[in-house]
Design a protein that fits this description.
The chain is of the alpha+beta class and 228 residues long. β5 and β6 form a beta hairpin. α2 packs across α4, α5 packs across α7 and α6 packs antiparallel against α7. The strands form 2 sheets. A 4-stranded mixed sheet has the order 1-2-4-3, with helices on one face. The chain has a two-stranded antiparallel ribbon with strand order 5-6. The chain contains 7 helices and 6 strands. The protein folds into 2 domains: 142 residues, Metalloproteases ("zincins"), catalytic domain (Zincin-like), CATH 3.30.2010; 35 residues, no CATH class. It is elongated and about 125 Å long.
């Protein structure tokens, strides 16, 4: 490599290093506004295990972020593509953190099960996830706040009521078998007696070297038979 080419290559390498360093600094600055909080993670896991089975088996990442990262009246958000929940820092000082986590976990449950994201994510599938988990109050609040969410809540309630009715009909129509114990009659044990008889058999005996002669032997044969 001649001197001119070497100087060009060194200049390009230096510029590339500066660009990479600046990019890394910008990324670090962007990520520095969010962090993991052990208490929030533990609470999120507890809420998921109480009523969001799919989210509990595949927990989303949970981050606490500076309030400036959120728009007005936004108490948290969920991003399905990266399966992540973010909570503004000011939520840590309030009493509604548990319901906020339930709200975002319902979004995660809906995304994991392929549910609809209508009404900005507040679809009937989202409402069903909240109602199944026992968060009817939060579902009612969402229904009053977002356009179309009240209709979604009504749909969710109707479908869950239909499921319960169908289960009740299946349970009411099923008649379990009635167990009837087998009837047994006591039979006293049979009295056995021993019966014997003698039997004669002919055998060959050696009477002297290289000489054999027949002989008659008597043997007794016994067996047990039921008494008459």
């Amino acid at each position: 490599m001649n001197n001119r080419k070497q100087r060009v290559w060194l200049l390009w390498s230096a510029k590339a290093s500066v660009v990479m360093a600046a990019t890394a600094a910008l990324i670090g600055t962007a990520n520095a506004t969010c962090w993991r909080d052990a208490n929030v993670t533990a609470l999120m896991q507890a809420v998921a295990q109480e009523g969001f089975p799919n989210a509990a088996s595949r927990m989303p990442a949970g981050l606490v972020c500076e309030g400036s990262d959120f728009g007005p009246n936004i108490g948290g958000d969920y991003t399905g593509g990266i399966h992540q929940i973010r909570i503004p820092q000011w939520q840590l000082n309030g009493t509604g953190l548990r319901s906020v986590l339930a709200h975002e976990l319902a979004h995660a449950e809906t995304w994991l099960t392929g549910g609809s994201d209508a009404n900005h994510g507040h679809s009937a599938d989202f409402m069903r996830a909240l109602l199944r988990a026992g968060w009817g109050g939060e579902a009612q609040r969402v229904g009053q706040q977002f356009a179309g969410a009240q209709h979604a809540l009504d749909q969710a309630r109707a479908s869950l009521a239909g499921d319960a009715s169908a289960r009740g009909q299946r349970q009411g129509g099923y008649q379990p078998p009635i167990y009837t114990p087998p009837t047994t009659t006591y039979t006293p044990p049979t009295v056995m007696v021993q019966v014997c008889h003698d039997e004669q058999i002919t055998v060959v005996r050696q009477v002297r070297p290289h000489f054999f002669a027949p002989a008659v032997m008597t043997r007794r044969i016994c067996q047990w038979v039921p008494a008459q």
